[in-house]
Amino acid sequence: MKQFFIVMVIFTILYSRTSFAADSWGSSSIPQKLTLEEACRAALQNHPQVLSAEFTTKAAEENIDDVRSAYLPQITGDAVRTFADRGTVIAASGGLTSSSVIERGSVGLGLSQLITDFGRTNNLIASSRLELESQKDRTAFVRETVLLNVISAYYDLLRSQSLLQVAEDALKTRSTLFDQVSELRKAKMKSDLDVSIGESAVADANLLLLKARSAVDDAQATLSEAMGLESPRYFSLVDHVNIVSPPDSIGNLISSALEQNPEIAQLKAESGALKKNVAAARDAKYPTVSAIGLAGGSPYRVDDQSIAHHYEAGGLLVSIPFFTGGRITAEEKEAEYKALAVEQDLKVKMNELQRDVRIAFDNVQTAYKNIEVTRQLLNSTHESLQLTQTRYQLGRSSIVDLNEAQLADTQAAITEANADYEYLIQRAVLDYRVGSIPE
């Protein structure tokens, strides 16, 4: 019995470790410590959008080998066992071809080697390589988008937790005041109006606290989704707010964006790939020259048929598309129009990017200035609240004045708590537009 108990304990320990390894983010009810770097790393490893883009990139890599295989020898093996009436050598097969209805059993190999198609395959290979570059740029764009969502969600959760602290402090302050006023009312030193207004202030603080808690839960769920987790988790975030001054000039930012932004790079590579497709479609008008060879044997044959035991044949095949019903011309024009369309898309995206960089730059400047303004406002409301509290205790101010001072101070604290994280989020958006968001 004792040995069984020991075995069960060991099994439980091993199972719990295995379960933790399978779900490194723990249960949804126990907050786990999380840094911004860990959140970003988890998103890049787990998010379905990133994984989908990476798989698509691998598919584009395989497409190069697929297209390039046209340059390599194509070897096929064939085996046939034919049954036919004696003397049958011709059949209505629907075309002009060598007879294949002689009764026999044959096996052999066929070899085909492209000699030249006057650059068509070469252009298709170049196009597939540019398509791979385009897909890599798209993957980079997806990664940066996921990172922006994670960074925004991370700072938004920190902001929500900061606002929750403001709501808790407000409730504590107003509850203390309400208790004091209630005691003074019992001593007939304050009126029922003071008690009523104090009670209303506590109710408002409770409502603010409920909203703040709900906002924290929503922010936790948003961060979990941004990290690519299947279900919401609760995290204890490491608050390492580092406020650095924003860039002074927008000119360099726009230049960097046009060079680094992955969406721009993707469209440029896509445009290059389509131009190569245009050249390949144009080259389809030229002949294709291939070498072909056949070798094999007929181990089974009818005795009175003059079929050799072995066969070998070879030659050159020249295929010239004299008339294809307009297919080649249509394919060429289709490729040209697609290339022209992407060029226009590139111009649109470049114009949009310059606009987005300017908007993000202005938002960063405004958010940075708001930090100092909100701090000054909070200091001012703190001083005003302290003075109003003193006047109220001395009987020189009413409960209405004190309640208004508390509301102003709470609102200033909310605004100040928003300011730092709003700047960090707007700074991440600017880095995203420029194409320099850190991984």
Describe this structure in words.
With 439 residues, this protein is of the alpha+beta class. 66% of the residues lie in helices and 12% in strands. It has helices at 2-22, 36-46, 48-68, 120-186, 192-226, 251-260, 262-283, 327-393, 399-434, and strands spanning 32-34, 74-82, 104-116, 235-237, 288-301, 310-319. The strands form two sheets. It has a four-stranded antiparallel beta sheet, with no helix packed on it.
Reconstruct the topology from this structure.
Layout: H1 2-22, E1 32-34, H2 36-46, H3 48-68, E2 74-82, E3 104-116, H4 120-186, H5 192-226, E4 235-237, H6 251-260, H7 262-283, E5 288-301, E6 310-319, H8 327-393, H9 399-434
Parallel strand pairs: 1-4
Antiparallel strand pairs: 2-3, 3-5, 5-6
Helix pairs in contact: 2-4, 3-4, 4-5, 4-7, 4-9, 6-8, 7-8, 8-9
Task: Summarize this structure briefly.
The protein is an alpha+beta fold. The protein is built from 9 helices and 6 strands.
Oligomer: single chain
In sequence order, what are the helices and strands, one letter per element?
HEHHEEHHEHHEEHH
- Assign the structural class, choosing from mainly alpha, mainly beta, alpha/beta, alpha+beta, or little secondary structure: alpha+beta
Please, how many helices?
9
- Give the proportion of residues in helices: 55-70%
